[in-house]
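Records of this kind hold a single protein each, on a pair of labelled lines. Below, a sample record shows both lines together.
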Amino acid sequence: MSINDISHRFKLSRLGLWRGFQRRSIKAFALLFSLGLSLSFAIAACSPTPETANSTPAQTLRIGYQKSSTALNLLKSKGDLEKRLAPQNVSVEWNEFAAGPQMLEALNVGSIDFAYTGETPPVFAQAAGAPLVYVAYEPLGGAAEAILVRKDSPIQRVADLKGKKVALNRGSNVHYLLVRALESAGLQYSDIEPAFLPPGDARPAFEQGSVDAWVIWDPFQAAAETAMGARILVDGQGLVENRGFFLTTQNFSQQQPQLLQTLLEELQTVSEWAKNNPQNVARFLEAELGIALPALELAEKRRGYGVLPLSDEVVAGQQKIADTFLSLGLIPQPIAVKSAVAKP
């Protein structure tokens, strides 16, 4: 092979390498350009436009509720509160809890702004130093909570509970019912063995006989009556008032009085609707709670509705609960319920 042939082949080889380099460079540039363009689109999508910036809620109202807290559950479903607050640039966040004590713990740590519980959770929370404030109450009524026994139980009266294991949700409204029922039968709280269980755990324990009695509220009470024939040993009538309470924090009540008032007005509206439409409420709760319609219809017949201001009588009733729990060693220090009532 001549020198000219070698030189010619070298030129061709070098030309091929250059063209390959050109092709690879173009592909790399195209890839980098594509990635850069995608990144630009992503950044643009995440960056608020003037329209979206203006529509972003300036404030969020965080509400705690239980599925069994009917008024709040209905308000959540209807969406009327969201519609009313939208022009004020306020959104609503709903947070579900298993029971009142857990909800008030969330209120205490600042996870929610508004809560609804039975009578006793606020007493325990205030005794623990929570900065809660009572803003209104709901007159549920004594028939909406009871001490249940199985239909074949030999227990016939409250006095028969002596030495027996009784399930209840610690710190809930039925805690006070149990204390009052035992007192009325000449027993002390120490005469029974409390088994602190939330409703979801108490029901199977009750059915299987792991506990002798169950202190519970509607609609779980009505579900046990209709589904398994549970028998009411005693309900709260004549023993307790069984009120529900709407609560917030001291800071929220002072800083957002108008927002709080709007919420209470919407709750009153939905409560009036529920009071006048028990069958519709029962059908709504059937889907929400997974409880059979007959149980919910029974529960609706014996409960009260309303969003009422706290009177001296209501405050005195809460104080009596607090004093009773203090005497039993259930709370660590005395409290003045009046100091936790929102100023009108």
Q: What stands out?
A: The CA atoms of residues 61 and 162 lie 46 Å apart.
